[in-house]
Amino acid sequence: MMSESWIDAQIRKAEERGDFDDLPGSGKPIPGLGRRQDPNWWLKGYLKREKLDMPLPETLALRKEIEQIADTVAEERSEKVVREIVTDLNTRIVDARRRRTDGLKITIATLEVDPIVEAWRARREAEGRPVRP
């Protein structure tokens, strides 16, 4: 007669205590079972589970920031901070041009700070919110 191994005893005791009852996904098929496995399955699962966006290549991330700059600065209260945000973005654009990290040629132009500040100021004034230097 074989004696029960330590691990088998631990599993049996856990089953008796009900430790395996009502686990998440219990009684459901294993997601992706039988399908070809994506080598980045764990990363995609993590991003989905944590409700994170898929990281974009630097070029696309910068373009997205440029598209959203008006919304990014909209809630800022001072012109100084708006200028700092735009200047920081411009610095990152110039750095990306120098590095070409993801193999793509960076053809993104830097932003003109003054028109963005003027648009920010006009938006705040139209909303009746104060504009600080």
From TrEMBL:
Domain DnaJ homologue subfamily C member 28 conserved: 6-73
InterPro entries, sorted: DnaJ_homolog_subfam-C_membr-28
Official protein name in the record: DnaJ homologue subfamily C member 28 conserved domain-containing protein
Organism the protein comes from: Microlunatus parietis
